[in-house]
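As a warm-up, study this chain.
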Amino acid sequence: MPELPEVEVVRRGLDRWVSGRTVEAATVLHPRAVRRHPAGAADFAARLVGHRFGAVQRRGKYLWLPLAAGEGDEPGFAVLAHLGMSGQLLVQPATAPHERHLRVRVTFADADAGELRYVDQRTFGGLSVHPVTPDGLPDVIAHIARDPLDPLFDDDAFHTALRGKRTTLKRALLDQSLISGVGNIYADEALWRARLHYDRPSATLTRPRTHELLGHIRDVMTAALAVGGTSFDSLYVNVNGESGYFDRSLDAYGREDEPCRRCGTPMRRRAWMNRSSYFCPRCQRPPRPR
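Now compare it with the structure written out below.
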């Protein structure tokens, strides 16, 4: 599933090519793609027509396109997008052949603007229209915490919340009510850099160690952003259909039995919450049994 760097790459592409454009038509080709829009596919499409997309925003793994109100319309709505496992938001020429798994197609009033396409093989993600809060967030994601690249992210408040949780470090990093945008890949990478085991109780972290961990999270995400995110297959691409290259720089994730880049010990993989955790058994020693 795309994590913060991948979604931010898509957001930047959308903001460049789509923001400021007025929707001429919207077509839903598969109702599952808008299943989170309670009023249905026809209402979703009608909500977009005649509206101009504002600057594209993101919170964690969610991104949204604010809708400028038309004449006589209530202000304060946005198209919320979650890419799920295989969702792609592509900007394509209107003459380009339709993708095999094209689910939603949006055309613009500008003749040379091309069109926005939502493509999703597995349809775990989707698009929906929601009212926004006074803070500018779609109301259904108002509970999502800020992400570590957000200038308003509060490191000390995160440490306090972390210490107050009866959980383990990786579970805490994937808790979107504590910190958003960190998924399985970048959690493993940051924990490896910090020499912390994924199963360590979060309440045992000191304030300096929490700040150090946050620093590693920011470093790994910034590095991933610089090369377009992480692509393990053709399902994650940016708005132009290009893959990211950070998978070539991963230190932990996906490196089972390969030597640790720090100490040479073979990396290990353990099943974890229907996922996998990758770690170095020497650099990231497991916590002692209670």
